Amino acid sequence: MLSLKKRKHISQLSLLIILMMGLLCGPSHKSMAQTMDVGVFGGGSYYLGDINPNLHFVGTQPAYGGFFRFNYKERWGFRLGATRGKLKASDADFNDINAAQALLGGGIDINDPNLIYYAVSNRGLNFETDITEMSFIVEIHFFPFFVGSRKNTWTPYIFAGGAMFLYNPQPIGGGPNYRDLGTEGQGYAGQEDPYGKISFAIPFGIGIKFSLNERLGLGFEWGMRKTFNDYIDDISTTYYMDLYGFNPEEGIYYTPNPSNPQEIISLPITDEVYYSDPTFSHKSGEKRGNQYNKDWYAFFGVSLTFKINLARDDGCRDFGRDSYY
C-alpha cells in the first residue's frame, strides 16, 4: 500500500501534467503550441550509487521508451514520456583496493571498518532492477528550431523536469526481491519500515536535435536523474546482524547466541542472512552503505520523431518564409 505522503506526491504530479496539457492543447493556445511530436527512444541506462559511486556509463543496460512533445514557438518543448530500462551493478566489479588507497592517500587506513571503501572491498553485494519512469520534461533550445526548417536544421538544448519511477531490486540473475528480505533489518522490531517500490526524481541533461525533412526529426540525449531514494541498489545504512563466518558445505553460519552473547552457535543459512551479508563477516552497526548519498540513474540514446501540425502557420514565425511550410 502507498503511504499518504507518496499518494499526495503522485496526485500533485498528475495534476501538474493535466494542467500543462490543458495549457498547451487548449483552444486559446493553438497559435502557441503549433506542433506536436510523437517520438520513440532507444539507448541505454546506468546507475550511480553505493556500488558504483562515480563511473558514468559503466554497467550500461538497454533502455527504450516513447513520448509526446508539444512545441511552443521555436524555443520551448514540453514533453510527456515513459521510459523503461535496467540498472545493474556488482561489488565484484568495483573492489580494487589499490585504486581506493591511491584515491584516499597514505594518511587514511584503508582497513578502517568505518570507511565505505572498506565495506565495498569485502561485502560481496550486487543487484539488478528493471526501472520504469514516467516524466514531464521542459526543453529549451539554444537556437530557434522546428522540424521542417531550412534555416536552422539543428540545435543543442537543455532540459529539466519531474519524474516518478518504479523499481524492485533483486540479485543479478534472479532471485528473491531484496525488499521482502529486509536486508538491513527493515520490518523487524525496532527497525525502519520496508522501503517502497515507487519513488521520485528530477531529470536534467543536454541533447541535440536535427530536422531531417518536413516531418521527421532526430535527437541525441543524455540525462541524469537525481533521486530522493537510497535503495535502488538495496544498500543504504548498516548491517543488523553479528556474523562470524559460515560453512558452505554444511549450509550453516555462525552467530552469537541471543541468550548468551559470549557463546557462538551455528544456524542454517537463510535468504535473509545470505543476501544481507554474503561474506558472513560483518557485525551489527558496521557500514553497509552511505545513507547520505542518494542513488542516481541515467538514460542516454537516440530518438526519432514525427511532427503533427496543431494549427496553420500564420507566416509570422521567426524564420519568416524560410521553411517547409
> H/E order of the elements?
HEEEHHEEHEEEEEHE
Widest sheet, order of strands: 1-2-3-4-5-6-7-11
Strand content: 35-45%
CATH architecture of the largest domain: Beta Barrel
The protein's oligomeric status is: single chain
Q: Helicity, in percent?
A: 10-25%
Radius of gyration using CA atoms only: 25 Å
**Which outline best applies?**
elongated
Q: Which structural class should the secondary elements be placed in?
A: mainly beta
Give a count of the beta strands, DSSP E runs of length 2 or more.
Answer: 11
Total discrete domains = 2
Number of helices: 5
Report the span from N to C terminus: 52 Å
Largest sheet: 8 strands, antiparallel, barrel
Mean pLDDT: 85
Note poorly predicted spans.
23-33, 97-102, 113-118, 318-325
CATH hierarchy, class of the largest domain: Mainly Beta
In the CATH hierarchy, the third-tier topology of the largest domain is known as Porin
Description:
Helices cover 14% and strands 40% of the residues. By secondary structure, it is mainly beta. It has 2 domains: 4-92 and 124-236 and 294-309, Porin (Beta Barrel); 241-284, no CATH class. The strands form 2 sheets. It has an 8-stranded antiparallel beta barrel. Mean pLDDT is 85; it is low at 23-33, 97-102, 113-118 and 318-325.
